[in-house]
Design brief:
The protein has 118 residues and is mainly alpha-helical. The chain has one domain (20-115). Helices cover 53% and strands 3% of the residues. It has helices spanning 25-28, 41-52, 57-78, 84-101, 110-115, and strands spanning 3-4, 7-8. The protein has a two-stranded antiparallel sheet with strand order 1-2. A hairpin with a 2-residue loop joins strand 1 (3-4) and strand 2. Helix 3 crosses helix 4 (84-101). The radius of gyration is 15 Å and the shape is globular. 13% of the residues are buried. The model has no long low-confidence stretch (mean pLDDT 76). This is Reverse transcriptase zinc-binding domain-containing protein. It comes from Brachypodium distachyon (Purple false brome).
């Protein structure tokens, strides 16, 4: 366990994947069922871009990562039991916020993509 300023942190494993690393398939299956993570983050992004086939792929990747991060922090700091359902819920909430701030011309198909998760 890493130790920082007299505060012990648990391992950096994904709390949703039963001890696997953050870039595991189960965390990303929700948005991209065919995604198989690699060790290289740049290749993972390129692979997700190819699989998602949307212009707003980076927003999706960022929000999934953010959702996983929030679940992990709830687990570590608030002792809340992690769940994939809660991760999906956070992802949808954040995605809707991005949609409302986005320029409509830049995000063609964004609303349809969001509605596909309801």
């Amino acid at each position: 366990m890493p130790l920082k300023k007299n505060f012990q942190l648990p391992a950096y494993d994904c709390v949703l994947c039963d001890g696997c690393h953050l870039e595991t398939k189960i965390c990303w299956n929700y948005i991209c069922p065919n995604f198989t993570p690699l060790q290289n983050v740049h290749r993972n992004i390129a692979l997700l871009k190819r699989e998602l086939k949307v212009t707003f792929f980076m927003e999706i990747i960022t929000l999934v990562t953010w959702s996983i991060w929030k679940i992990r922090n709830d687990f570590i700091f608030n002792q809340r039991r992690p769940s994939l359902y809660r991760c999906k819920q956070i992802f949808k909430e954040e995605l809707n916020l991005v949609f409302h701030r986005a320029k409509r011309k830049s995000y063609f198909g964004f609303a349809d993509w969001i509605n596909s998760f309801r």
